Amino acid sequence: MLELWTEAVRSIEPLVKPAHRDLWLRPIECLAIDDGRIRLRAPNRYHKEWFEDNFLPSILKDLESRAQRAFKVDFEVIEDQGEPARLSAVSSTSERRAPPSLPVAARPPELVERYTFDKFVVGPTNQFAHAAARMVAEAPASRWNPLFIYGGVGLGKTHLLQAIGHEIHRQHPEWAVTFITCEKFVTDFIGSMMSQKRAGGSSMEEFRARYRNAPDVLLVDDIQFLSNKDSSQDEFFHTFNALHYAHKQIVLASDKLPAELPGVEDRLRSRFTWGLIAEVETPDLETRVAILKRKAELEKVDLPDEAALYLAAHIKSNVRELEGALLRLAARASFQGQAISIDLARDAISKLVANTPTGLTIEAVQREVAAYFDVKLHDLKGPKRHRAVAHPRMVAMYLARKLTNMSYPEIGSRFGGKDHSTVISAVRKIERLCGEDPSVRSVVSTLESHLRQP
Ligand code: ADP
Ligand code: MG
How many angstroms does the Cα of residue 87 sit away from the middle of ligand 2? Predict the structure, then answer.
C-alpha cells in the first residue's frame, strides 16, 4: 500500500522545483496506509503546514484516483513527540541550559528588534528563502547546514538572517546565538592577531573561543566580504569546520553565489554549498504593495491603496528604497499637514527620480557648460571674474552640485581651488535666478537634460 503514496508523490515531482523536492517532499514520511487512512509524519509543525497547503491536495488527488476511493490523512509531527528537533546534544550546550523557571534571556544585542519573521512579507520571489529560513529556525542543524541566503542589495537577506536568530532565541533562550557581519569577523580577527603579536597575550584564544566554541548558532552577514582576504578566509574555514563538526547551525548571507565569489578558496566555496542555497529575488508588484502596506501599518502611517500602488509601481529595484520612499512621503505629508494621497506620492516620486545620481563626473559637467557658453575650459576653472566666464562658472558649480555626489569643498577644489563658500553662494545665486529669470531657467534645464542623457 505504501507504494501508492510513493507513486502519487512521484506524479507531482515534475511540477516541483528540485530544491523544493529536497526541502519539502523528501522529509515527509508515509508510515502506513490502511482502511482509508494515511498516516504521515513531518519533522515539525511548520513543515506539516507547508506540506498540507502546497502539496498534499495534489498528491491526494492522484492517490485517490489510483485507488478509486477517498482517504483521510493523519499527521504526526516528530517535534510534538518530545524527540529532539536538534540531532546534536552537545554537552557544552546542555550545561548552559537554564532551568525553565528562569525568565527568558533578553534579545541578543546584535539582533535588530524589527527583523522578525512576522514582519517579513512573503511573496513568490522570497517564498523559498523564507521557508528555508523558517525550517532552519525550527530545527537548527538537523538538515540544512549551512543555509546560504543569496540575493541582491536590499532584498531582505539581513532581515531573514536575523529572523532566524530571533526565532531560535525565542525557542531556546539558553542557546548562544551569534550574529556577526563578515566585516566584523575580519576586523576582530585582525585585531586579535595584532594584539597577540604585540603582547604575546591570549587574544587569539579568546577570538577562537568566541566564534568556534561558544556559538550554538552562527549567523554571518555579507560573507562576500571574505573575497581576497586570505588569512581571514583561513580562519573562517576553521571556524566553519569546528561548528559544522559539532552540529551547530551556520547561516550565511551573500550578494553572490558561492561559485561567483571572487578570491575565495575552493574549499570554502564548496562548503558553502553543502547545505541549501536559497535565493531572494526582486519582489513583484503585489509583494511590493504588500510590503508597503505592512510597513505603513507598523509605522502607523495612513497609506491609501492608490498611493501604495503608485509607489510600488515606480520603485522596483529593492525593498530598502521602497521603505525609504514611504518614510519620506510620510514625513512630507505630516510636514505639510496633509494626508498621504496619490498626488503627494507622485510629487515625491518625481523629486526622487529627478534627484537620482547620474554617475556623471564633474569634468563632464564642466565640458558641457564650457561648450554651451563657448568659453575655454581653462577659463571656466580659472580665476577670471568678468561676467562672461563668472556666470557659466556658477552654472557649472550649480549643476555639479545637483548632478554629482560631490560636496561643496570638493567642487571648489575642482574650480582652481576655490573656497566652499564660493560654491555655496554660486549655487544659491543660480537657484534664485532660475526662480526669477525664465531665460536662465531655460538654459540651466537644457544643460541639465543634455547631461542626463545616457
Ligand atoms: P539585504 O540584507 O538583502 O540588503 P535587508 O534585509 O537589509 O536587505 O532589507 C532591507 C530593508 O527592507 C529592511 O528594512 C527590511 O526589513 C526590508 N525588507 C526586505 N524584504 C522584506 C520583506 N519581504 N518584507 C518586509 N520587509 C522587507
Ligand atoms: Mg544585508
Answer: 30
Of all protein residues, the one whose alpha carbon is nearest to atom 9 of ligand 1 is: 156
How large is the C-alpha radius of gyration of the chain? 29
Find the helix or strand (DSSP H, E) in which 146 lies: none
160 CA closest ligand 1 atom index: 6
Ligand 2 centroid from CA 156, angstroms: 7
Cα distances (Å, whole numbers) of residue 246 to 240, 250, 390: 10, 11, 71
Ligand 2 centre to CA of 385 (Å) is 49
Which DSSP string do the residues of 159-186 spell out, in sequence order?
HHHHHHHHHHHHH-TTS-EEEEEHHHHH
pLDDT of amino acid 439? 86
| Cell 558649480 belongs to residue | 397
CA–CA separation, 170 vs 163, rounded Å?
10
Best mutation site among 110, 297, 320, 322 for ligand 1, i.e. most ligand atoms within 8 A of its Cβ? Answer: 320
d(CA 265, CA 269): 6
Q: Give the pLDDT confidence of 332-383 residue by residue, as tens digits.
A: 888 888 899 998 998 877 766 555 556 788 999 999 999 999 999 999 999 9
Residues with Cβ within 8 Å of residue 402, at least 6 apart in sequence: 448
Atom of ligand 1 nearest to the CA of 319: 12
H/E element, 34: strand 29-34
Sheet strands side by side (includes 37-42): 29-34, 37-42, 72-77
Question: Which long-range contacts link 113-116 to residues 24+ away (Cβ below 8 Å)?
Answer: 114/298, 115/158, 115/159, 115/162, 115/163, 115/166, 116/162, 116/163, 116/166, 116/167
pTM: 0.64
Phi, psi of 189 (to 5 degrees): -65, -50
How would residue 97 be classed by pLDDT, with cut points 50, 70 and 90? very low
Pick the residue whose CA is nearest to atom 13 on ligand 1: 320
Ligand 1, CB cutoff 6 Å, lining residues: 119-121, 126, 151, 153-159, 291, 319-320, 323
Whole-angstrom distance, CA of residue 313 vs CA of residue 305: 12
Cell 539581513, residue located: 158
Amino acid occupying residue 397:
M
Residue 147: the pLDDT is 97
Read off the pLDDT of residues 19-41 as tens digits, 9 standing for 90 and up: 677 777 888 999 999 888 999 99
CA dist 5 and 55 (Å) reads: 13
- DSSP H helices, 55-178, are 56-67, 91-96, 127-138, 157-171
